[in-house]
Design brief:
By secondary structure, this protein is an alpha/beta fold. It has eight helices and 13 strands. It has helices at 39-47, 60-63, 66-73, 84-91, 153-166, 182-205, 211-218, 227-243, and strands at residues 3-9, 18-24, 29-32, 50-54, 76-80, 97-99, 104-105, 111-115, 124-128, 131-135, 170-173, 248-249, 254-255. The strands form three sheets. The protein has a six-stranded mixed beta sheet with strand order 1-2-3-4-5-6, with helices on one face. A hairpin with a 4-residue loop joins β2 (18-24) and β3 (29-32). α5 (153-166) runs antiparallel to α6 (182-205), α6 (182-205) packs across α7 (211-218) and α6 crosses α8. The longest helix has 24 residues, at 182-205. It is elongated, with a radius of gyration of 19 Å.
């Protein structure tokens, strides 16, 4: 099984400034997350027989080149079942087929769809021969952004636990290097989220009431340039805590 990673420059706030596109297989290959049109990706696509195009989710930095490569390869374009309107809005392409949990996208060797919501509502992964392509569900360094606008923190916790239980040999993320010790790294990501949640809950119990006040109390690092992302993350945590009955959050004010 051949997994070829091509990092392409995209308009993203990810620290790498690039998104990983992947080509799985060589004959009847599967193209994953063509985030932009780029010469290095052109070279791989032209060297393979691309039969299918799939995406982990429809954020712009993962689908920006999909229309071009779909037309160029005449491949079957797949979208998440129940999310085709979102897919069309993001890509300008009407999918030929849809997938859901457990769907096998055929190819050499083909991939099996795994639901991985949290970072985005339509987020999935693709499993093939002891490896999982996880999009923005994990990164080798840093942390994953799960915001209030399109994310779901409770779902993200479940996604991390699910990936830990899989115990893959390698995990391929949407940004940055492959994760070669997935169980350890995914456990670190879950611990990081739990620590942030503890800090958010503690801030509320100690008197912070607004999202901005909770950000100030829950973060002990310089947030210059990412204040909005920190605020969205805090709100996502507050929504989770509210649903679990641990704090009350009405969208404006948090109380113990």
């Amino acid at each position: 099984m051949t997994v070829t990673r091509v990092s392409v420059p995209v308009a993203t706030r990810a620290p790498t400034g690039q998104t990983n596109a992947y080509v799985i297989g060589e004959d009847a290959a599967v193209l994953v997350d063509p985030g932009a049109v780029a010469e290095p990706l052109d070279a791989v696509v032209d060297d393979r027989s691309i039969a299918h195009v799939v995406v982990t989710h429809t954020h712009p930095d993962h689908v920006g080149g999909l229309d071009t490569y779909a037309a160029r390869t005449d491949a079957t374009v797949w979208a998440r079942a129940g999310r085709t309107d979102r897919f069309v809005a993001a890509t300008g392409v009407t999918p030929d087929a849809t997938y859901s949990e457990g769907t096998v996208v055929p190819g050499e060797p083909g991939v099996t769809v795994l639901d991985l919501p949290g970072h985005a509502g339509d987020h999935v992964g693709f499993v093939t021969d002891g490896a999982t392509l996880v999009g923005d569900a994990a990164v080798a360094t840093g942390s994953v952004f799960v915001g209030a606008e399109d994310g779901d923190m409770r779902a993200y916790y479940t996604t991390l636990r699910r990936l830990i239980a899989r115990d893959d040999d390698v995990v391929y993320p949407g940004h940055g290097d492959p994760i070669t010790a997935p169980r350890r790294r995914l456990t670190e990501l879950l611990a990081h989220r739990r620590d942030r949640e503890r800090r958010v809950e503690t801030a509320v119990r100690e008197g912070a009431r607004t999202a901005d006040a909770i950000v100030a109390a829950a973060y002990d690092k310089d947030l210059t340039g990412v204040e909005d992302l920190a605020r969205e993350t805090v709100v996502a945590h507050l929504r989770k805590l509210d649903r679990e009955g641990r704090v009350s959050w009405d969208g404006t004010t948090a109380t113990p």
